[in-house]
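Quick board copy: two proteins, each given as sequence then tokens.
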Amino acid sequence: MNHPTTKQALITGASSGIGKATALAFAAEGINLALVSRESENLEAVAAAAREVGVKAEAYPLDLAKIEQVQSSISAIAAQLGAVDILVNSAGMGYTGSLTETSLADWQNVLDLNLTSVWQCILGVLPSMRDRGSGIIINVSSIAGIQTFPNWGPYCVSKFGLMALSKTLAAEERARGIRVTAICPGSVNTPMWDTNTVQSDFDRSAMLTPEIVAQSILHAVQLPASAVIEEITLMSNAGVL
């Protein structure tokens, strides 16, 4: 596979769901990959699948919930790569429960992973993007970042915060040639629905697939540097949120 202008992407949450699908979609287009997740075995399997189509792909096991380590770890990965052209912040967690029944610890865990770790990942790659005067940052938000839902309070707060982070970052970095896109999918059939922090009876067969979301991310990345899609709202046409 010959891609004379091969780019380098760093993707968090790359061991499953949207992150995995995005990694494989990027690989098919000749984009080299640095893959981050705490699930080391699954992460290496995704890296191996990407290498099979001819791109460079390295797995970097990292628990983004350990906030104090995130910026330095991502900075070290960026330094090792030499350049990060694309950052996709896909890692995150779901959480259901009323605001009155949410513990302080649970609240903090959701905000740490879904919002603060994204900010720290951005800080890890931003210096090199500024040095080159180019780069694109994709933040995977949610329909819950533009619309609230009862019993999803901490999750909605984290995703509304991510939208504010994305918009502020775009305004601050536009003059430096750095583009920022927030993608807001409706419900996506990912392993998030199998976790013990989410209780839901949605029809998963009617949800978006990770591959559909990944194609939207790929489209945003492939635009000319003179253009940016700042926000994408992507919904299933089957009537499920």
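And the next:
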Amino acid sequence: MIEILNATDLPRARDAGALVAGILRTLKSRTGVGTNLRDIDRWTKAMIVEAGAESCYVDYAPSFGRGPFGHYICTSVNDAVLHGRPYDYTLADGDLLSLDLAVSKGGIVADSAISFIVGDARPAESLAMISATERALQAGIAAARPGARVGDISHAIGSVLREAGYPINTQFGGHGVGSTMHQDPHVSNNGRPGRGYKLRPGLLLALEPWIMADTDDLVTDADGWTLRSATGCRTAHSEHTIAITPDGPEILTLPEP
């Protein structure tokens, strides 16, 4: 299903996006060496409930997972890149943490992800990976103009990632959002320009470049959810929800200054 919102829906989409951005900003500021992943999940739940919003993850049970996800946020550490289930792990200095959050507020979903280094360590290779996903995300957003095609976004994202020297997995990528979290169209992180669905005002897209340092192969943890690099290499993930407007893309999950 591809859902097109009308102009009266956009303020609610902005509210959902602002909530997701604010929660992620707060989580990043509270997370440090010694933080347990279960604490992050608990903090997330409290902020969602306080805002009168709903988690998109707790009862989420797609075909690629094993039963309901059962948590409020994805916490992926080091070689984990997607769908990381929070567990009893205490973060250490230099860990690369990705937080992925989707929330429904006012009947509209916003979805965003950030990656950052925990503590004072600054591993150059990890920082370069994070930067590559952020640059690819900005390139994808810039390509998301009304009248463009989904393939234009995919090509823009893939061009940045390839230029940076990273393999690209196309099994998981961006997607439409609206009244539900995962909708069509699928937005691959690599593709050919001029192909695919034609973008139109009212379309909401979650764009999410993610990479693994030296492989494009994933393995699934015993929890049935957490996806890791097949080689044990580090990973990074960045994501924003955008609205296609007549004037171009509007980032809904951009944190306030």
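Board note added afterward: The chain has a mean pLDDT of 97.
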